[in-house]
Amino acid sequence: MSMGKLSGKTAVVTGGASGVGFAICQRFGREGMNIVVADIEQAALDRAVGQLESEGVRAKGVVTDVTDEQSVRNLCEQAYDTFSQVDMLFNNAGVGVKEADRKIWELTANDWSWGYSVNVMGIANGVRAFVPKMLEVGKPCHIINTTSFNGACISFPTTPIYASSKAAVTSLTEVLYAQLAKVAPDIKVHLLFPGPHMVNTQILASQRNRQEKFKDDNKVEDYLTMEDLKKSALGANAEFKLTEPEEVAESCYEGVMAGQFWIRPYLEEHQAMISGRTESVLKNENPAVM
């Protein structure tokens, strides 16, 4: 699928009503793509579809709970029923558990279940629902999974659930890439790293969408302060910068069009951290404490 030939193609974006997901909807919509916006929030979904349509994008909203297998299968059915083909699947939905001031052993079973059910099983459900249909249709297409530098490259000790879930996403996507390269090379797989800095979204205010089945009696506050945000990034004393969702969407577009698997913005600080971790593995050295 070459640049300039996206008009009339169809993209499905989970977590598409806000943040990076919505920016991706807008960016690829500007290329003339039909956009299927999937999100768990009906009100946000309606706003997103309305905004896209006002920008001249042909859009359809589908309320989707990515933790629910049947809900994702319904999304797949509606996308193909409406547009007959899915050319790009963005498995983008993700949540952040409020964990910066909590230890692994203090996080509840529901905290773990929720984080992994959205961040990992949400992608697995997307793959399981869409890939068989993609194989059946037999046309070139793309799958783009959203990971994070935090977990994929370095695990920040303030985010045990988030970091470990994104490590799982990265491994899952590498395996998907290898398997599809053998059986269906026209299905291209990509791994999107939002950044290079923490992205200016509401992911750390995700409690608003926490399903009843994952809730505890002791409620965690819904919204994080900017200080919480800083601690969840690189530590309370780190220089704090933000990346805007539109920047992520642009790098995503460029990476997909270039056929890149690793769609990761360059940051010198990150390069040094990756090198340090890799060296410790190669030399069997104990990890540095962050």
TrEMBL record:
Any single Pfam family the record assigns to this protein: adh_short
Keyword terms: Oxidoreductase
Domain of life the protein comes from: Bacteria
CDD domains: SDR_c
SUPFAM superfamilies per record: NAD(P)-binding Rossmann-fold domains
Listed InterPro entries: NAD(P)-bd_dom_sf, SDR_fam
Any one GO MF annotation of this record: oxidoreductase activity, acting on NAD(P)H, oxygen as acceptor
Keyword Ribosomal protein recorded: no
Family: Belongs to the short-chain dehydrogenases/reductases (SDR) family.
Name the UniProt record assigns to this protein: SDR family NAD(P)-dependent oxidoreductase
